[in-house]
Amino acid sequence: MLAFIIRRLVQSIGVLLAVAFIAFAMFRFVGDPVNQIVSIEASAEERAQIRESLGLNDPFVVQFARYVGRAAKLDFGISYQFRQPVTKLLGERMPATLELAFVSAVFALVVGIPMGVYTALRRDSWLAKLFQAVSLVGVSLPTFLIGILLIYVFAVTLGWLPSFGRGEVVRLGDWWTTGFLTTSGLRALILPSITLGLFQMTLIMRLVRAEMLEVLRTDYIKFARARGLTRRAINFGHALKNTLVPVITITGLQLGSIIAFAIITETVFQWPGMGVLFLQAVQNVDIPIMAAYLLLIAFLFVVINLAVDLLYAVVDPRLKVTVRAA
User: Fold this and answer.
1) For position 276, which CATH number holds?
2) Where is the ABC transmembrane type-1 domain (predicted)?
3) Structural domain tally of the chain?
4) Fewest C-beta atoms under 10 Å: which of 34, 116, 137, 187?
């Protein structure tokens, strides 16, 4: 197991280096950041001086090596737009994004898995057909449209929930802030978390249903019925456990997607997270923020995939034997 983890860590470092290289190479063609730093009246000498101070005149390889060396120390440079360290800017907005992603993931899992199990075990009931219709709506509608509809119904028409912002937050420590401890913070989380987690919820529901139906048709389930095991033991002790193996894969990838693609939801609800900061960086050609954001998302994907691989051995003992043999 230790050798397996070490191999995964080495592969993860390679992935992060590849993402950093691609991002750094792409952003060289986004535009000239000097135009966003100086005014229109700035002279050519001033522009040249700024380019030299930022190291933009150095060869690409030198710039990339310098960036990787600093990134390893969590130093992503200074934002061209805000004139502040990128690490500080991302750290201020990371709690909002992670909090939203966490609630969305919990919503998707807590609602999606039971719905999938129910639609597989009671597939001819009217409630199962209703769940499947809801899942089609969740898969078909784009995220921004779902957010706008929820705002119109629950914020504008009914006035039950806020339509934007994070609400009142409580500071914990030097940089972490949370809305879990305030009423306005919890109310502000409801609409954006449903908007962000609805697609993942419907995807998990349909995947659990399909896998559950397939597992229930296998020979060992028929043998369990022949032995006289209770329906609860068969469905939840045997069928559901084997259903969770592919579900863990998709759930892990979707959790990374929730964090990466929270940009749309954060824009619709004006959620003060990293996604909004990234969009502002794109508009202003703020290369340090863009590169740091993509590298952070890649790091989160790598960590999640490593956790998923380790969970496999817990859920499926056959994979534990394979890992030991490797």
Assistant:
1) 1.10.3720.10
2) 94-312
3) 1
4) 137
Which residues have a Cβ under 8 Å from the Cβ of 37 and sit 6 or more positions away? 50, 80
* CA angle in degrees (0–180, nearest 5) for 164-254-192: 10
Which amino acid type is present at position 229? L
Q: To 5 degrees, how large is the angle CA 61–CA 64–CA 66? A: 105
What is the separation of C-alpha 29 from the centre of its chain, rounded to a whole number of angstroms?
27
Question: Do the domain assignments include residue 320?
Answer: no
Residue 44 lies in a domain: no
Under 8 Å between Cβ of 54 and 67: no
Please give the pLDDT value at position 150: 92
List, for the chain, all residue ranges whose pLDDT scores fall below the cut of 70: 1, 4, 27-33, 36-37, 39, 312-326
Instruction: Report pLDDT digits (tens) over 210-229.
Output: 888 888 888 877 887 888 77
Sequence-distant (6+) residues with CB within 8 A of 99 are 178, 179, 180, 189
Alpha-carbon distance of 326 to 324, in angstroms, equals 5
Q: Give me the domain span that covers residue 153.
A: 86-286
